[in-house]
Amino acid sequence: MRSITSTSLAALVLGLGLSAASAQTIRFGHVDPAEWTSSKKGAAAEVFKMLVEGESDLTVELFPAGSLGNENELIEQAQEGLTQVVMVSGAMSRVCRAAQVLDVPFTFADATVAWSVLDGPFGDELAEHCLEESGLRTLAYGETGVRHFTNNTREVRNPSDMEGLKFRVQPIPLYVEMVNALGAEPTPVPWTEVPNALATGLVDGQENPVGVIYGNNLHQLQKHLTLSGHVYATDFLVINDEFFQSLSEQEQAVVARAATVAGTVGRAIQQFNSAQGLSAMASEGVTVYAPTAEELGQFRELAQPAVLEWLREELGDDAEWIDRLQAALDS
To answer: What gap in Å lies between CA 121 and CA 328, rounded to an integer?
Structure first.
C-alpha cells in the first residue's frame, strides 16, 4: 500500500509539474498600433492571442506600437528568447539575407500572386532556410502592403517623370538602388521624420502602401499618387525556435494554426485599408494614376536589373534564392 501511495503521489506531483511547465507565457511584439480595425499587425496579434488562449493553457501578452522597441530590436529579442513571438517586415533580412529577394521590384504582379508563392513550397523552403540562419521559425507570412509612389510636384506616369525628384526611401540599400535606377534621387529618411521631410520640402515624395499613406495622413502633404505597385512587402510572423520546441506537440499545433489564421487576417485588414484609403484619397483631391502595362514595363526594365545586379553581389552564396523565387513564379 505504501509503495502504491508513493507512486501515486510521485505521479501527481509530476503531473502538476508538467501542467505548470506547459502553462507558459508568450510575449508577442510588433510596431503597429494595437487597434485591430486599422492595423494589420494589430489585428494579427489579437487573433493569435484569442486562438492560442482559447485552445490551450498558454497565455499571450501583446506588446504593440513599438513598446518593446523597433523591428531590429524585436528581432534581437526574439533571437535571445526575451520576446517569444514578433511580427516584422524588412528587419527579417538582417538575420536572413535571403529574405531580401521578396523586395526585388516588380517581382509579384499583385498580392494574390505573392500569397500563392509564399504559402506554397517556396515559402516553406525560405522559412526553413531562415530558421537555420537565425534560430527563428517563420510560422506565417502576413502583408505590409503593395508599395506605390507619391509626390507633391507632378503626376508620374513613367520613369522619365521621376527625373529630378527627391524620394524618401527606407534606409535600405535595395530601395536606394531601385529609385536611383528609375532616375530619381533617393533620400533615406527614418520613418518618424517622414512627415516633416515632406512638409519642409526636404523630399518631393515617398513610397509606401496606400493604407500606410492614408493612415498616417501623408496624402495631406502629397498631390499625386502613382499606383506603381513596385514592391509587395511581406510581414514575417516568427517565433524563437528553442521556445517553440519546449512546447508540447499539441501546443505547437495550436500556435502554428493560430499564426496561419493571424497572417491571413493581417492580409485582409491590409487589403481593406488599402481599398478604403485609395477611395478616400481620391475623394480628398489626390490625383491617382494607374500606369498602363506598357508604362509599368518601363519601370520594371529600369528598376529590376539594377536591383538584381546589386542583390546578387550582396547575397553571395545565397543568390540562388533569386533563381528559386523566379522558378516558383514560373511554375
So the answer is: 8
Query: Dihedral, CA atoms, 72, 74, 80, 81, nearest 10 degrees?
Result: -160
| Mean pLDDT calculated for residue range 184-191 | 95
CA distance 285 to 258: 40
The closest of 167, 207, 159, 208 to 187, measured between CA atoms, is 167
Cα–Cα distances in angstroms (integers) from residue 110 to residues 116, 215, 298, in the given order: 10, 21, 17
Q: Residue 88 is inside which H or E element, if any?
A: strand 85-88
pLDDT digits (tens, 9 = 90+) for 150-179: 999 999 999 999 999 999 999 899 999 999
Angle of CA points 260, 261, 265, to nearest 5°: 120
**Does the pLDDT value for residue 13 go beyond 50?**
no
Nearest in space to 299 (alpha carbons), one of 175, 183, 202: 183
Q: Containing H/E element for 4?
A: helix 2-22
Q: How far apart are CA 60 and CA 74, in angstroms?
A: 16
| Mean pLDDT along residues 219-238 | 98
CA atoms within 13 A of residue 145's CA, in its CB half-sphere: 26
Secondary structure letter of residue 52 according to DSSP: H
Are the CB atoms for 113 and 325 separated by under 8 Å?
Answer: no
pLDDT of 23:
72
**Any alpha helices (H) in 88-202, and if so which ranges?**
111-118, 121-134, 173-181, 194-200
Grid cell digits, residue 183 = 532616375
Name all domains of the chain by residue range, CATH numbers in brackets.
2-330 (3.40.190.170)
Could you read off the pLDDT of 235-277 as tens digits, one per residue?
Answer: 999 999 999 999 999 999 999 999 999 999 999 999 999 999 9
Question: Which residues make beta-bridge pairs with 226?
Answer: 149, 289
Give the pLDDT confidence score for residue 7 in this predicted structure. 35
Could you tell me the pTM of the whole model?
0.90
